[in-house]
Amino acid sequence: MTQSPRAASISLQGIQKRYPDGTEAVRGLSLDVRAGELVVLIGPSGCGKSTVLRMINRLIEPTAGRITLGDEDVTDVDPVRLRRRIGYVIQNVGLFPHQTVRANVATVPGLLRWPKNQTRARVDELLDLVGLDPAQFGGRYPHELSGGQRQRVGVARALAADPVVLLMDEPFSAVDPIVRARLQEEFLRLQAEVRKTIVLVTHDLDEAVRLGDRIAVLSEGGHLEQYDTPAALLGAPATPFVREFVGADRGIRRLAVTPLDRESLEPVPGDAAADLPTVALDGSAYDALAVLLTSGRDQLVVTDAGRPVGALSRQRLLDLGRPTS
Ligand SMILES: Nc1ncnc2c1ncn2[C@@H]1O[C@H](COP(=O)(O)OP(=O)(O)OP(=O)(O)O)[C@@H](O)[C@H]1O
């Protein structure tokens, strides 16, 4: 996968935010996000997630600390210009109701005075990319779309001017769980293509685990409890706060992010193999458990391109999900 040169790293260094009424929303957070990485901020309500996100595009000015995008200190950049380089997607999308889908997606290219034909081509490309046929949807108004379609338009609009960073605040929480799961899946495919640096805020641990390259768990005051990959977070919570936050079912969640690598497999049992249920090697330990539960068997065969490459017993699978601390 090639990394887009149009993605910038983000570095937060000791950022603080005290609101005028004295509320200390963020007391000193340092966090680095690599270019092209998708980082999820998660934590209880009021811990400062949205405040952190909005400090990155300077919708909120930090009281102290430094934020850099690539080599550039964001406080040195005019905030309006800065926001044109940073896509921002929020829960209820905020599409302009009296503008068509095309006009909505073209907002930032319009501000940047791109030539009309370049904008038009870019808008159609983006609508395609988010799974909306430009011919069918381009001329519609937001109220003529479903919630999931509006969300896709919001993502297309945020990506329109090829931003170096995408900030997303609860982007999928306004739609029902089924649409949400589909949007998440599509979004991962989209990210594999565009490889933007993304900071996404959510309340939903499953969403964090599914989407995040790394997850930052915050507690009150924007205190960073742990910053790790989903598997490491679920496997070894660093603090009692994180342990409680990820919950007793973290073993099950961990299975979903545990690949079936060849080293963890057992030998294929000679004669019995033909009889056993199978799961593909590119699935997760969670998929394997689902196959075992559905089939009622104690063992399954793992296949690669249809060929058996190993086996997994129920016990072995349970061991894969067992946290290490
Ligand atoms: N404009 C403001 N003035 C004063 N306090 C504020 C302001 N905006 C947010 N806060 C407070 O700052 C803290 C952090 O708020 P923030 O919205 O960043 O949290 P959050 O983690 O995003 O919450 P949620 O998950 O509920 O959206 C909260 O205590 C909130 O009440």
Automatic annotation (TrEMBL):
The record ties this protein, via Pfam families, to: ABC_tran
Q: What is its EC number?
A: 7.6.2.9
Signal peptide positions (record): none
Which residues does the UniProt record annotate as the domain ABC transporter? 10-245
The entry lists its GO molecular-function terms as: ABC-type quaternary ammonium compound transporting activity; ATP binding; ATP hydrolysis activity
Gene3D superfamilies from the entry?
Answer: P-loop containing nucleotide triphosphate hydrolases (3.40.50.300)
Q: What is this protein called?
A: ABC-type quaternary amine transporter
